[in-house]
Amino acid sequence: MLAQMVRPPSGSASSPSDGAGGSRRATHPAPKRERVRPVFLLAGLVVAPLAWIIQICTSEALASQACFPMGHPLSAPELTSLLRIVAAVSVGAFVLGSLGFAAAWTSWRAARTDLDESSAAGLPERGRRTRFLALVGVLGSPVFMLGLLLTAMAALVVSPCAGW
User: Fold this and answer.
1) Which key words tag this protein in UniProt (predicted)?
2) pLDDT by residue (tens digit) across 18-73?
3) Torsions phi, psi for 18 (to 5 deg)
């Protein structure tokens, strides 16, 4: 009767009964998944790509207005501090992308499991989803940060008023 009154919480996994006839309650493979803040998970997914988009749009808009005012191309930019502004935007975007990577890393560390991958199939759907989204942020953020660096190098190496 006592065994009928004690029920495991919904969504928790229980292992098959052991040889003694009693059932053992398994611990959740990702016990810290509830500690993952949705804001950090979202930031880990979107901050680095948004930083790259902001860098590209801002740099291109500044260069186009400095080099092609009123549709007439110039040989040198009208805005003398254009390179410093583009460099500042690039540094700011890289810092923003780094914060996105840190949020993704924090989310992944909280949701990861110490068990091998074969036992991950036993995770509840929410635990798998959280861990997957955090891992996408961890793997995707460095790619966009590389894009940030390459865009900054291109903007600083190539003259903004040069013809492509």
Assistant:
1) Membrane, Transmembrane, Transmembrane helix
2) 444 444 444 555 555 567 788 889 999 999 999 999 999 998 888 877 777 766 77
3) -85, 180
